[in-house]
Fold each of these.
Amino acid sequence: MLSLASKKSRLVNTWKMTEALVNGQSYTTSTTVTVFDIKKDDTYTNGTETGTWAFSSDKTSVTFTPNGGVIPAYTSKILKLKSNALWLQQTITVFTFSTTIETHYSSN
């Protein structure tokens, strides 16, 4: 179903992680609780990490830039974006080894 709400209005929310997959395998435990607060002013809080966020020009991915310069900016592909569901995918490559992390969130 096509949403009339803008992508930004759907992305801005307080999200609770419901599942994490690393290379397709579940990495979620019953004690895993991550709250991802994406704000209208283009800032975010993810656990103890804070920073700014921006859509790619085609709005198929979002780049998160943590404050402080210690953690580099990272881009996540948007797999699903609804008012109550957000699925992000990030691939991390070190030398020739790649890891794909997929995180699923639901709104509170």
Amino acid sequence: MSASEVPTPGAETAVERRVRPITCSGCSETWTAVSAAHCGSCHRLFAGVRLFDMHRSRDGEHGTCLDPETVLGEQGQQRLFFRDGMWRGPELTGEQRAKLAKVWGGEAGDSIPA
């Protein structure tokens, strides 16, 4: 192999960076979703920062973790659901998916996550 063929250390493609697993040194959790938020205290994985924030309480000096199943909305409805290996918000209704498809310029079933 010539010097020009030797890969530069740390020179990865954007695709390689996106699919590299992310891990937690305090537990065995591994994920690849860049937008996911892992809690270093309770070691639960959330689909996004907003959902992570919902599970945190202001109680205590540094806050505490709430059981995601007990996080309720104003009308007492469950707000966090465990699906596909992480805590997520409620699934979209067909009507919500259709509205998003219009905003995104697609059809009701086109690449709209469930």
Amino acid sequence: MATLDFVTPANMLSQTLGSGSPSITSYSSTSITATGGSGIGIFTGSFTFIGSKLTGGTVTAYSKYTSGALDYSISGISADALTVKSYINANDATGLEQYVLH
């Protein structure tokens, strides 16, 4: 079961991944960081890559930061990494959160 922990008040109906188009700024087999303006999302789990291209994996947790401060975190999830990437590429934070909490 997913656990959602709020550190600051958040309107989950109007989330963004930051200003501008978010992009993946760092990655490893256990963590992917997406940055957009002052927003940072850190996805943890198990990921596979060919070169720098994400080829699969599972997201098990997500933490959302604004200006370096933690807004909220989600743990206990099991989300397909390629589906999560498609939400990031579309800058659809609300859809992403609905997907991982479904």
Amino acid sequence: MRRIQCKNFSTIKKKKKKLSVVKSPDNYTSSPAIIPNQNGSKNDRLKAWIAKKLNEIQEKVKNQHKETSKEIQEMKEEINILKRNQSEILEIKNSLVEFPNTIENLINRLD
């Protein structure tokens, strides 16, 4: 068995295997899956490892995008609620400002 040193300094044991490419039937936009077979070259094994890591990264990015999109939508909904509450508070404030004037007018009418 041979070992190669990767950029992230982790050691990967390499076995002599040949690689074949298989595309997922339900998702043609994703990267092809690479399945190791016997008698593969070092270059094929490296390509398989890189493809596997790229697929993992792609899945993580998709999941993060979905989560972030949900959070952004929730924040937008909360902002809309706050805007409505602010409008209602301003209406109440205006009513309270008018209230003393109304009371004073009523008192004047009674006199």
